[in-house]
C-alpha cells in the first residue's frame, strides 16, 4: 500500500529541513499527428519510462538543492537517462507543476515538471535513450502513454493505468493530461481507475 503524501507549494517544499531529499521528474510530451491503425488519432506523444524496479515513472531523479537549482539537477538527470538528445531542450521553472512530500521515511519531496517539446525533439529523445548512460541500469526503456481507449473499453489508457507506478506518478500523469488539455477531462473521469498499489 502506498504511503500517504501531501501536496506542498514549491516554496514550502524548499523550506523543508536538511533531512528531506528532493527528487525531480519531468513528463515530456509533443504533438503527434499520426493515427493508430489509420483511424485512431494519437494527438500527443507522452513519454514515461520503465524503471529498474519494474514500476512506471517519469525521467529524472534525486537532486542536490545545495548544488544549483532544482532545474539544474533535473536537467543533469535527464541527460544521464535520456542521452545526448536531452541537450536539445531545457526544463525550466516555468515547466514546474507540483510538489508532493511522503509522510513516512525516507523523507522525500517529489517535484514534477511537464515540458512541451517539438515532435522532432521527442523523436530524437526516443532514438538517443537506448545509448544513454543509465539505459539498462536505472532505466529499462521509454514507453509512450496510449491516450485512447480501444473498442473493448479496456485497451489503451485504461489498461495502461492498471500498471504499477512509482509514488504519485499515475496521479501526476492524469492531472497533467487534463490540466494541459492533452485529453478531455470528461474522458479521464469516465475511466474506471484501479486501486493504487
From TrEMBL:
This protein's record includes keyword Phosphoprotein: no
EC code(s) of this entry: 3.6.1.62, 3.6.1.64
Residues covered by the Nudix hydrolase domain: 19-170
Main location (coarse class): cytoplasm
Keywords: Cytoplasm, Hydrolase, Magnesium, Manganese, Metal-binding, Nucleotide metabolism, Nucleotide-binding, Nucleus, RNA-binding
GO cellular component: cytoplasm; nucleolus; nucleoplasm
InterPro entries in the cross-refs: NUDIX_hydrolase-like_dom_sf, NUDIX_hydrolase_dom, NudT16
Record Pfam families: Nudt16-like (PF22327)
Enzyme class: hydrolase
Superkingdom, natural source: Eukaryota
PROSITE patterns cross-referenced by the UniProt entry: NUDIX
Assembly and interaction partners: Homodimer.
Protein name (Swiss-Prot/TrEMBL): U8 snoRNA-decapping enzyme
Amino acid at each position: 500500500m502506498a504511503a500517504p503524501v501531501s501536496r506542498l507549494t514549491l516554496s514550502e517544499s524548499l523550506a523543508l529541513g536538511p533531512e528531506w531529499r528532493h527528487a525531480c521528474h519531468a513528463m515530456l510530451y509533443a504533438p503527434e499527428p499520426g493515427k493508430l491503425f489509420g483511424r485512431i488519432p494519437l494527438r500527443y506523444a507522452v513519454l514515461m519510462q520503465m524503471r529498474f524496479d519494474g514500476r512506471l515513472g517519469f525521467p529524472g531523479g534525486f537532486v542536490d538543492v545545495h548544488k544549483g537549482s532544482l532545474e539544474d539537477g533535473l536537467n543533469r538527470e535527464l541527460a544521464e537517462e535520456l542521452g545526448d538528445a536531452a541537450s536539445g531542450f531545457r526544463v525550466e521553472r516555468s515547466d514546474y507543476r507540483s510538489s508532493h512530500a511522503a509522510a513516512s521515511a525516507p523523507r522525500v519531496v517529489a517535484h514534477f515538471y511537464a515540458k512541451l517539446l517539438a515532435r522532432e525533439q521527442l523523436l530524437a529523445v526516443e532514438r538517443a535513450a537506448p545509448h544513454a548512460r543509465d539505459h539498462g541500469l536505472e532505466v529499462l526503456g521509454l514507453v509512450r502513454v496510449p491516450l485512447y481507449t480501444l473498442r473493448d473499453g479496456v485497451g489503451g489508457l485504461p489498461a495502461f493505468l492498471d500498471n504499477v507506478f512509482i509514488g504519485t506518478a499515475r496521479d501526476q500523469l492524469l492531472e497533467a493530461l487534463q490540466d494541459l488539455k492533452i485529453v478531455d477531462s470528461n474522458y479521464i473521469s469516465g475511466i474506471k481507475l484501479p486501486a493504487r498499489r
